Amino acid sequence: MSDPAAQISAQLTATKSLTPNSTWLATFLTTQRPTTPLPALAQTACFRLLASDITDSLTTASPTCFPQDVHNASFKERRLAGSIAVQVLAVEDMCKSRWEQIEAIEALERGEGTKGREIIRVAATEADDSTGATVQKGGGPHKLLLQDAAGRRVHGIELKGVEGVGLGMSIGCKMVLKNALVARGVLLLEPATITMLGGKIEELHKAWKEGRKAELKAAIEANEHEERDSG
């Protein structure tokens, strides 16, 4: 194995559209046994990348990140050529009230999902931890806050329902945008342009859940206060 770093990088780029930067990859290789077969190294590297903050782990070369003017609202519509890996920093169900969103978050914390109007228990599995599979079905469209490896943040809105997107998805979940459409600085999300990779950043996920509930409750209280004052 002449250059394992180059081979792992090439494999992850080709199969997952994830291109680790040289510093992250070199550090990763120091934690692995020299005799580990290349396929096993690549699989472990992929797992670690899905649990990482991509602003630390992936390359910021221009074809793999949002253009610097991605927020330019003067562009009515444009396609972002190529594949861009992003991570989810926030999710919102645009059709649920604030109280409904709080209830949905708390239901997931109790290990419950929804099936129609019926509440069902959702059994946690190893696969759930890595893919964010406890996503509540239905609802939407959803609004996501997405971040690329360069740290640029862009909001995206579902044009059509995307499998794996919902209030129960893991914060830090990775997805790849392929030839995605941007309108007035907002990504328009649809199944044909998204590949869900999964993953989760534990500290971000916990902070988002706690912060989101507090934010929703504060907004409800502020609204109730305004109504009392106006009454």
Termini Cα gap: 75 Å
**How many helices does DSSP assign?**
7
Helix content: 25-40%
**Arrangement of strands in the largest sheet:** 1-4-5-7-6
Radius of gyration based on Cα positions = 19 Å
Q: Spans with pLDDT under 50 lasting ≥5 residues?
A: 114-133
Oligomer: single chain
> Which percent range describes the beta-strand content?
15-25%
Question: In total, how many beta strands?
Answer: 8
Task: Provide mean pLDDT, rounded.
Answer: 85
Largest sheet: 5 strands, mixed, barrel
The secondary-structure class comes to alpha+beta
Order of helices and strands: HHHHEHEEHEEEEEH
| Backbone shape | globular
How does this model look, in words?
The protein has 7 helices and 8 strands; from the N terminus they run ααααβαββαβββββα. It has 231 residues and is of the alpha+beta class. The strands form 2 sheets. Strands 1-4-5-7-6 form a 5-stranded mixed beta barrel. It has a two-stranded antiparallel ribbon with strand order 2-3. A hairpin with a 2-residue loop joins strand 6 and strand 7. Helix 1 packs across helix 3 and helix 5 runs antiparallel to helix 7. The longest helix has 29 residues. The protein is globular. The chain starts with a helix and ends with a helix. About 9% of the residues have low confidence.
